[in-house]
UniProtKB/TrEMBL annotation:
It comes from Tetragenococcus osmophilus. Residues 45-72 have a biased composition (Acidic residues). Residues 29-249 form the WxL domain. InterPro entries: WxL_dom (IPR027994). Residues 31-87 are annotated as: Disordered. This is Cell surface protein.
Length: 256
């Protein structure tokens, strides 16, 4: 089974800032993206910080429509080849985490431009192309590492939960054969493969998008980070999110 990987998302925990170093690589290789998060102590003089639960915060939203009218501000390509990941999100920005508070933060959406040059935001998405012509199908999965303090690797954001919600598959201009299995709402555990899309025999030919949110309103809360009440050490944390594409679907418990 041929396996292609592209690490495509920068995770930013509450107030988190991230940067990506997406790299085009040969088939059977991988591309990686760093994910960064900043944790801060609460301000005793800030009413928002003294509450038991913080309101979710989002960045800018919107949606990919399956055509070529959108160009991301930050390109984060995957792998070349007949079966490939053409694009993965450049970053997930969840804002700033204040310790000692239970909270849910939401990632902002991708920013780019339309063909007329106007600014345009779209939901986070992964684009897959299958030009193999063998009609065998494919599988898109993701895995992530724990958020780890950049200066002290003994400190992590253990207990936080990342999830994708409102996801769906959308055919591009050259897509045919709707994939049978798509994970609409799914948790992304640490160091574990999570299957997102399975295109079986005679499915998933051409261009396909795995989109997090069908419209702007949904997309605003489609990438969530749940943070428990815990005394995390202040500092900058980093994590890595890997998107993987294989040339045939596997048996996976999270798709049942």
């Amino acid at each position: 089974m041929k396996k292609l990987s592209a690490l495509g998302v920068v995770l930013i925990g509450l107030g988190i800032l991230t940067g990506i170093n997406g790299t085009i690589v040969d088939a059977d290789s991988s591309a990686t993206t760093s994910a960064n998060a900043t944790v801060e102590k609460p301000d005793p003089n800030d009413p928002e910080d003294t509450g038991e639960t913080g309101d979710g915060e989002t960045g800018d939203p919107t949606d990919p429509d399956g055509d070529d009218e959108y160009t991301p501000d930050e390109s984060n390509p995957g792998t070349p080849g007949l079966l490939r990941i053409d694009h993965a999100p450049s970053s997930f920005d969840f804002g700033t985490i204040k310790v000692g508070r239970k909270q849910t933060k939401y990632a902002g959406l991708e920013s780019g431009s339309a063909t007329d040059g106007a600014e345009k935001s779209v939901p986070n998405y992964v684009k897959v192309t299958d030009n193999t012509g063998n009609f065998a199908g494919w599988e898109l999965s993701v895995s992530r590492t724990e958020f780890t303090n950049q200066e002290d690797d003994t400190q992590t954001l253990d207990g936080t939960e990342l999830s994708f919600n409102n996801a769906y598959a959308n055919a591009g201009s050259k897509g045919a054969g709707m994939p049978t299995t798509v994970a609409s709402d799914v948790n992304i555990p640490v160091n574990s493969k999570t299957v997102l899309v399975q295109a079986h025999e005679n499915e998933g030919m051409g261009e396909w998008f795995y989109v997090l949110g069908e419209n702007n309103e949904e997309a605003e809360k489609s990438v969530a980070l749940d943070v428990p009440v815990k005394q995390y050490a202040p500092g900058n944390y980093s994590s890595t999110l890997d998107w993987n594409l294989t040339d045939a679907p596997s048996d996976s418990s999270n798709m049942e």
